[in-house]
Amino acid sequence: MIEFNTILCRYGEIGLKGNNRSVFEKSFTRNMKSLLRDVQDLRITRIRGRVWIKHKDESCFTKEECETVKKQMPKLFGLESYSIGIMFEPEMGKIYDIVKETSKSFISEKLENKSSVSFAIRVRRSNKAFPLTSKEAEIELAEAVSSNFTEEELTVNLDKPEVFVGCEIRNEFAFVYYDKLSGPGGLPTGSNSPVLSLISGGIDSPVAAYMTMKRGCALDFITFHSSPYTPQESIDKVVDLVEIINQYQRRGKLFLCNLAPFQKLVRDNCSERFRTILYRRAMMRISEKVALKIKRKALLTGEAIGQVASQTIDNMNVIDNSTDMLILRPLLGMDKLDIIDISYKIETFEISKLQVPDSCTVFAPASPATTSKIYRLEEEEAKIENYDTVLDEIIENIEIHKYQE
Ligand code: ATP
Ligand code: MG
Questions:
Q1: Disulfide engineering: 149 pairs with which of 1, 32, 153, 262, CB 3.0-4.6 Å?
Q2: pLDDT score, position 58
Q3: DSSP per residue over 159-191, as a string?
Q4: Which tens digits make up the pLDDT trace of 315-327?
Q5: Which mutation among 196, 198, 351 tests ligand 1's pocket best, with the greatest number of atoms within 8 A of CB?
Q6: Domain contains 210
Q7: Are residues 149 and 236 in the same domain?
Q8: Which residues are near ligand 2, the ion (C-beta closer than 5 Å)?
Q9: In total, how many domains does the chain have?
Q10: How far is the CA of 99 from the centre of ligand 2 (A)?
């Protein structure tokens, strides 16, 4: 068994570059520390476009620790790829010995089940003072690998090798690895401004949350329920969904808002056809006020054009008109099936698909309006006495669900 002492991380895109680079790198390493909190005594080092992780005492990673790393790294936005490998001084003799020794055990294992194994070697040399060019180093290392095996046992395959030997040579270190694993890409959560996510128990809003975090925005969440017309399960479901999404960031808060007092007034005073749009405008207004209070500059929804009656262009226009705040709608142009694919991938689908009543369906009209005009909605809202006061009271009664770090 080869023992690995280092995880080398390669970043993806660096948002906005320039001054933002340090914000990016700080968020990246902070998120990494949080995701790897179950691996003890880590030291994270960052030098010129590379980040690497070691134990403080330089000891090797155990098998369990490597498993934890593989489970957690796909949640580290900003990470393009990473490798678990061996880091040591950048000296050719040492590189030769380590490649010879580790490739021997790696390839021998594969040869237990077959008569021949293909391999390829790739050297990246950023230290231009290093005595060998990348090509020359590759030739020497190919010799190191071959020296342990017969010609029949080992073949070269540069396109699709069964064993890939990677080597990076920099001023600070040499690094040998056998695998390049994918990260999720994107920008580190926290490297862009934070946003307030309107989250329901449905399939779409958790996916919208994931996509926005992937662009660097940390999230807090607000959900609307209609207690006692919706059951406690409606709230529990959203609490569970946010728990999953929160794995990608420093835990965001969840604001629990009871819309029922407003919905009753809508039921008793307004035209039935417009109920859903009236709810949605109230949700936006309440969310805007909460966002301003906690200094968030945008709202986020899981709306997609034409998916349901409230998401026609006409109705979205009317909903949009209820607030001046920027509303992010990352799913606008997506098909439901593609949204479901992501929801599987981020493991929210199983919870989202549970059938639990949603706040929007309380007193839902039999045939909701698919087109509406702003003035018509304003007429309906004028039928509710003290509209603003009603919303303010609802805001005062918001409860906050906090998640443990
Ligand atoms: P989802 O699957 O996200 O529930 P949906 O297809 O059911 O979306 P709508 O019910 O029209 O569509 O909701 C559109 C968006 O409005 C949601 O994605 C969410 O951002 C917000 N929203 C709807 N209902 C609620 C709610 N009860 N609490 C918070 N936000 C909500
Ligand atoms: Mg919904």
A1: 153
A2: 93
A3: SS-SEEEEEEE-SS-EEEES--EE---SEEEEE
A4: 899 999 999 999 9
A5: 198
A6: yes
A7: no
A8: 200, 202
A9: 2
A10: 55
